[in-house]
């Protein structure tokens, strides 16, 4: 899930990608579109355990990002190896855990929310910088 954010109007665009085996676009492609959009001031990236889409996007953001990004990873309490709703939300390795993804996102300059309740506040703070 992505949100295109502006300081004046709040959330103006949202993209739900999901974790299915066949998707319409990747997290990285969505981030690139929002980074290139002149009306987008900030991006909220919500991901989940399993897979590498969020970390792929985070590494790109570190090298090419021009706008603030706030991120959240769902599944922080998921037990290793247990399916959490669908095939994409399963921890397969160390880098698939919520903690690992959140750490990578922080190292890449993304403002990481511990709870979805913190997303708006963190974006407001990031837009002020």
Can you offer a commentary on this structure?
- The protein is of the alpha/beta class.
- The protein has a single domain (2-128), classed as 3-Layer(aba) Sandwich (Rossmann fold).
- It is built from 4 helices and 5 strands.
- The chain has a 5-stranded mixed β-sheet with strand order 2-1-3-4-5, sandwiched between helices.
- It is globular, with a radius of gyration of 14 Å.
- The mean pLDDT is 83.
CATH topology: Rossmann fold
How many domains? 1
Q: What proportion of the residues is helical, as a percent range?
A: 25-40%
Total helical elements: 4
Order of helices and strands: EEHEHEHEH
Indicate the radius of gyration in whole angstroms.
Answer: 14 Å
**N- to C-terminal distance:** 24 Å
What does the main sheet amount to?
5 strands, mixed
CATH 2nd-level architecture: 3-Layer(aba) Sandwich
Count of strand segments: 5
Q: Which segments are poorly predicted (pLDDT under 50) over 5 or more consecutive residues? A: none
Structural class given helices, strands, pairing? Answer: alpha/beta
Biggest sheet, strands in spatial order?
2-1-3-4-5
Describe the global form.
globular
Query: How much is the average pLDDT?
Result: 83
Roughly what fraction of the amino acids lie in strands? 15-25%
Please give the CATH class. Alpha Beta
**CATH homologous superfamily label:** Succinyl-CoA synthetase domains
């Amino acid at each position: 899930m992505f949100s295109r954010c502006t300081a004046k109007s709040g959330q103006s665009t949202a993209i739900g990608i999901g974790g299915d085996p066949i998707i319409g676009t990747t997290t990285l492609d969505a981030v690139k579109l929002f980074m290139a959009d002149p009306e987008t001031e900030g991006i909220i990236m919500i991901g989940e355990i399993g897979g590498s889409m969020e970390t792929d996007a985070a590494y790109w953001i570190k090298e090419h990002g021009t706008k603030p990004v706030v991120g959240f990873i769902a599944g922080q309490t998921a037990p290793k190896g247990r399916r959490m709703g669908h095939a994409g939300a399963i921890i397969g390795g160390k880098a698939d855990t919520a903690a690992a993804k959140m750490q990578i996102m922080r190292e890449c300059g993304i403002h990481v929310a511990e709870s979805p309740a913190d997303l708006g506040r963190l974006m407001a703070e990031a837009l002020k910088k």
